[in-house]
Amino acid sequence: MRGVGLSMVSDELLDLVNEKDEVIGQISRADPALRWKDVRVVNAFIRNQRGQLWIPRRSPSKSLFPGALDVSVGGAVQSGETYLEALRRESAEEVRLNLSTVQWHELAAFSPYQTGLSSFVRVYEICTDTAPDFNPADIAGGEWLTPGQVLSQIAAGAAAKEDLAELVRRCYGSVTDGL
């Protein structure tokens, strides 16, 4: 899939989950009653051997956080999907990456009830030294940054998706080495 149109996104059906991350129903992504803390998302950082993260800038046409810094890969887990299935789908859609061709692993799982993050989230790390062939419908560009550089840019006022700084801190520490 080369791009996701607005009508496809608005038609997405997501699983509603309780505070234990157990499915209790479904909700359309377009439903005004959607609360992100009641759904699941996946996020992944692409990390090279030098410890840098590939940090994209969201497309200016995105409805949420246009032009903002973001995780390398991210998206909602669709109804009936596992976190891993969503990671595979989002990696193919956003950065045209087949996870069977690279090393990757899960870094963490977070609950919005214990962390203050926006959703139930599983965070993964994809290991490659190659910048991805990203989908321009999702991503305007990207650059390799150390975790400290990401945090410094956000602290200096760079627009960023709401959970980015907290995910970098929780997954890589608040170290600003390598600035």
Structure explained in plain terms:
The strands form 2 sheets. Strands 3, 4, 5, 6, 7 and 8 form a 6-stranded mixed beta sheet that branches. The protein has a two-stranded antiparallel sheet with strand order 1-2. 22% of the residues lie in helices and 29% in strands. The protein has helices spanning 6-10, 83-95, 112-115, 147-155, 164-172; strands at 13-17, 23-28, 40-47, 53-58, 73-76, 103-110, 120-127, 139-145. With 179 residues, it is of the alpha+beta class. The longest helix has 13 residues, at 83-95. 30% of the residues are buried. It is built from 5 helices and 8 strands. The protein has a single domain, classed as Nucleoside Triphosphate Pyrophosphohydrolase, CATH 3.90.79.10.
A few lines on this structure:
The protein has 179 residues and is an alpha+beta fold. The chain has helices spanning 6-10, 83-95, 112-115, 147-155, 164-172; strands spanning 13-17, 23-28, 40-47, 53-58, 73-76, 103-110, 120-127, 139-145.
Top keywords for this entry?
single chain; 179 residues; alpha+beta; Nucleoside Triphosphate Pyrophosphohydrolase; six-stranded mixed beta sheet; two-stranded antiparallel sheet; 5 helices; 8 strands; 22% helix; globular; disordered N terminus
Task: Detail the topology: elements first, then pairings.
Blueprint: H1 6-10, E1 13-17, E2 23-28, E3 40-47, E4 53-58, E5 73-76, H2 83-95, E6 103-110, H3 112-115, E7 120-127, E8 139-145, H4 147-155, H5 164-172
Parallel strand pairs: 3-7
Antiparallel strand pairs: 1-2, 3-4, 3-5, 4-8, 6-7
